[in-house]
Design goal:
Elements: H1 14-41, H2 59-82, H3 85-90, H4 95-126, H5 128-132, H6 136-159, H7 166-179, H8 194-209, H9 217-224, H10 237-253
This protein binds protoporphyrin IX containing FE (HEM).
Protoporphyrin IX containing FE (HEM) binds near residues 102, 103, 148, 156 and 199.
C-alpha cells in the first residue's frame, strides 16, 4: 500500500525562504556556470593538486579513508534525496527502512570520511613543506568538508528519534521540489532542527565554492583516470641500475 508521504507544511519565514528557497538556485547556478568557465579558461588549473611528492606519509591512509567515505556519502545523498518518494513506495522500501539505511551506511561512511579528513587536515596544517605549498583554498575546503562531516554526523541522533522516516521524507520533498522548480520548497523543512539547517546551508555553500577549489577534480577524475590514454615514461630503480651497469660495460669495452 502506498505510504503517506505528504509532510505537514509549515509556512517558511523569510530567512528559511531565502536559505532553502532561493539560495539552492544560486549555489547550483554558480556550480554549473563556474565549472564550465573554469574548464574553458583555466584547463591547466583543473587538477587535484596532489601533494604526494612532498610527503607520502599519512597521505595514503587519510586519502583512502576520506575518499571511500565521501564517495559512499555522495552516492547515498544523491540516490536518497533525489529518488522520487513514490518509487520507494512502489518497490516496497518503507520510509523507516530507508531512514535506518541512511543512518547505518551514512554513519559508517561518515566516520571513515571524518577520520580521513582529520588526518589530511593535520598533514596539511602541520607539515611545513605542505603548508608552504598550499593555497588558502586548499586548506579552507578541507576544513569546510570536515565541519560538514561533523554536522552530518551530528544529525544522526536527531534522525534516530524519527525512525519512521518522517523527517527524512521532508528533506526528500524539499530537494525534489528544488529540482522540479516547485514553489514552496522551503516550507517542507521550515521546522526541522537547526543542525539539519546548518548542514544544508554549508552543503549548498560547498556546491557554491566548488568551481573555485581543487574539488573540480571530482568531475573529471572518473572520466580521465579510468579511461586514461596516451603514455607515460616510467623508470624503476631496477631499470636504472641495469642500464647504468650496461653503460659502464659498454664504456669499458670500447
Ligand atoms: C547540498 C548538499 C547536502 C545536502 C542537501 C545534505 C543533506 C543531508 C541530510 C538531509 C542528511 C540527513 C539524512 C537522514 O538521516 O535523514 C544528511 C546527513 C549526512 N550528511 Fe549531508 N548533505 C549535503 C552535503 C553533504 C556533504 C558535502 C557531506 C560530506 C562531506 C555530507 C555528509 C553527511 C553525513 C556524514 C551525514 C550523516 C549520515 C547520513 O545520514 O547519511 N553531506 N545530509
Amino acid at each position: 500500500m502506498a505510504q503517506e508521504h505528504v509532510t505537514s507544511l509549515a509556512s517558511a519565514g523569510w530567512l528559511d525562504q531565502a536559505m532553502f528557497g532561493y539560495y539552492p538556485y544560486i549555489a547550483l547556478s554558480v556550480l554549473a556556470i563556474g565549472s564550465v568557465i573554469r574548464f574553458d579558461r583555466e584547463p591547466y588549473t583543473w587538477r587535484s593538486g596532489s601533494s604526494q611528492l612532498l610527503r607520502r606519509k599519512q597521505l595514503v591512509l587519510g586519502s583512502v579513508l576520506f575518499h571511500l567515505g565521501v564517495l559512499v556519502i555522495f552516492a547515498g545523498h544523491f540516490v536518497g534525496l533525489l529518488t522520487p518518494i513514490q518509487l520507494f513506495d512502489a518497490v516496497g522500501i518503507s520510509h523507516g527502512a530507508k531512514q535506518v539505511l541512511a543512518i547505518v551506511a551514512g554513519g559508517i561512511a561518515g566516520v571513515f570520511a571524518i577520520a580521513g579528513a582529520l588526518i589530511l587536515l593535520h598533514r596539511r596544517v602541520f607539515d611545513p613543506r605542505i603548508r608552504a605549498n598550499s593555497s588558502f583554498g586548499d586548506t579552507a575546503i578541507l576544513a569546510l568538508l570536515t565541519v560538514q562531516l561533523a554536522l552530518g554526523l551530528s544529525t544522526i541522533p536527531l534522525s534516530a528519534q524519527h525512525l519512521d522516516g518522517s523527517e527524512m521524507v521532508k528533506f526528500m520533498a524539499w530537494a525534489q521540489s528544488i529540482f522540479t522548480f516547485k514553489p514552496g520548497a522551503a516550507n517542507h523543512i521550515a521546522e526541522v532542527h537547526w543542525i539539519f539547517k546548518a548542514h544544508l546551508i554549508l552543503g549548498l555553500t560547498i556546491l557554491l565554492v566548488f568551481p573555485f577549489t581543487r574539488l573540480v577534480h571530482m568531475l573529471s577524475a572518473p572520466v580521465w583516470y579510468l579511461n586514461r590514454r596516451g603514455w607515460q615514461l616510467v623508470r624503476t630503480r631496477r631499470n636504472m641500475a641495469t642500464s647504468k651497469k650496461r653503460a659502464s660495460t659498454t664504456a669499458g669495452g670500447v
